[in-house]
Backbone:
């Protein structure tokens, strides 16, 4: 693809190439006359001649336009002009989750924070009927304020959208993060994203993927056929309970996985928190491990248990909606049980209750 650096596309002056692949390239651009820096994602001119790819690119723009959430990268503009298709988004300068993982495994609190934010964004997309289908560290951008943001919904599909729009000449995901049913070319739903969150959890806490191989085919075969390795054996600080929970989330059969990232707000009250005290919103700190209700998966809570950072799990993602007591294996951590350490976000009386 011809480098567009130094040219002008519509109202955007292309400043530098940031990265990309065979399908599209991302540039840093300046929108005139506003002088606003943006990320401009341009479809390859060769692919612009293929109606299927153009429709898929346009579908990505429409997908992003539906989503308004602090943990999802929004879209500014989409254009089909001058023999090319492009969309513009905010320019995020904090790098990606891949940059962070390249330094090694994360501590459990850092992992919990990222999983919480990724889970919130993913749940918002699922609520809108949108499946990401390519959740991986390079598609999680890190804002300069430290916030995780889901990006690159290029493989996303809305409920009811024809599958062929997302598979024309392309793989339907990234080996290592794809669910078994996705590897085999079957139709997927939000449980494939849940599987990918399980992979992210495994990688964050162990520093490696659960299934590896010398090439894509070996990775695909391992994903479908190889038992899930023990995270606790790869990282001695992790409890054995984490393996039990990961076995559920990374189940080969999607029916055996949690059926949603989390249940709706207000559910899961079947197990009240110890002390029944609500954290004071006015006293919460941004860097606090207690950031209120969370969609962080429960297997992360288990990973923290050795450090007394988690008391217990509450509410199963696919438990009954009638208020009955939830089962173990929750995706939701009660905000008052997410941290057992004295902290400004916890009322004094609740700190005493946990002592």
Residues:
């Amino acid at each position: 693809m011809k480098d567009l650096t130094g040219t002008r596309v519509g109202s955007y002056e292309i400043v530098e190439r940031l990265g990309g692949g065979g399908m599209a390239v991302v540039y840093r651009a300046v929108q005139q006359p506003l002088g606003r820096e943006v990320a401009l994602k341009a479809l390859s001119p060769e692919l612009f001649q293929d109606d299927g790819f153009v429709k898929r690119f346009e579908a990505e723009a429409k997908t992003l336009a539906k989503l308004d959430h602090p943990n999802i990268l929004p879209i500014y503009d989409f254009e089909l002009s001058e023999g090319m298709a492009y969309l513009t988004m905010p320019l995020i300068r904090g790098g990606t989750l891949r940059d962070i993982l390249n330094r090694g495994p994360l501590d459990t609190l850092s992992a919990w924070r990222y999983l919480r934010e990724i889970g919130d964004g993913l749940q918002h997309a699922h609520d809108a009927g949108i499946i990401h289908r390519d959740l991986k560290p390079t598609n999680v951008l890190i804002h300069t304020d430290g916030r995780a943001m889901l990006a690159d919904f290029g493989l996303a599909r809305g409920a009811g959208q024809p599958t062929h729009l997302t598979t024309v000449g392309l793989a339907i995901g990234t080996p290592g993060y794809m669910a078994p049913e996705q590897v085999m070319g079957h139709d997927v739903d939000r449980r494939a994203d849940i599987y990918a969150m399980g992979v992210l959890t495994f990688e964050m806490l162990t520093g490696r993927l659960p299934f590896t191989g010398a090439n894509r085919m070996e990775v695909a075969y391992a994903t479908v056929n190889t038992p899930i390795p023990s995270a606790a054996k790869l990282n001695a600080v992790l409890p054995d309970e984490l393996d039990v929970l990961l076995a559920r989330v990374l189940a080969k059969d999607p029916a055996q996985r949690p059926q949603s990232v989390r249940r709706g707000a207000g559910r899961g009250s079947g197990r009240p928190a110890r002390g029944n005290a609500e954290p004071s919103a006015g006293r919460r700190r941004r860097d606090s491990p207690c950031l209120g209700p969370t969609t962080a998966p429960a297997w992360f809570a288990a990973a923290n248990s050795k450090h007394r950072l988690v008391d217990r799990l509450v509410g199963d993602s696919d438990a009954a909606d009638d208020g009955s007591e939830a089962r173990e294996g929750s995706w939701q951590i009660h905000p008052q049980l997410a941290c057992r350490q004295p902290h400004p976000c916890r009322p004094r009386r609740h700190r005493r209750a946990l002592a």
